[in-house]
Amino acid sequence: MLVIPKKLFLTKGVGRHREELSSYELALRSAGIAQFNIVSVSSIFPPECKLVPRSRGLKSLIDGQIVHSVMSRTATNEPNRLISASIGLAIPHDCHQYGYISEHSAFGETAKKAGDYAEDLAATMLASTLGIDIDLDKSWDERKEIWRISGKIVRTTNITQSAEGHKNGLWTTVVAAAVFLPELH
Q1: 131 to each of 117, 127, 134, 151, 155, how far by Cα in Å?
Q2: What's the domain range around 12?
Q3: For residue 136, what pLDDT is reported?
Q4: Above 50 in pLDDT, residue 185?
Q5: Per the domain annotation, does 173 fall within a domain?
């Protein structure tokens, strides 16, 4: 039996608690995925997979289900420390080709900066497999224009959660995830 995801959704969340593990649990609740047994997988967006809204994806899952996910997670108990967790996604024009999902976690980066980086990373990985010559010294906007012109990358996006560490030193955890919805063959 092959498990090949045909749908995927993106989600994010933040949690705060005096215990690090509890702050992680609260971040998963905030993301809407705490009720699942999450298995971490690597970063391939399967061929013929579709990105669906979080609300639609959650409706097709059952509490306690084993769910595969690419997840980014960052935690701090340092007051006011900026943390970010981001997932980048690059989907190829040819739906029979696989794409890439990247995870990025950071300290001191805004959500915009972390999200752009994760998206850029996924698109750069996809571009290299498609034979698109990318100059890594070019700016994010210049590279994005090259991808558009090539016609081989149809879409890039990201989901990012950032937060500042709690002012009184509670653990703060941020998560971002790409959650696969299984289809059995």
Answers
A1: 21, 6, 9, 12, 17
A2: 7-181
A3: 63
A4: no
A5: yes
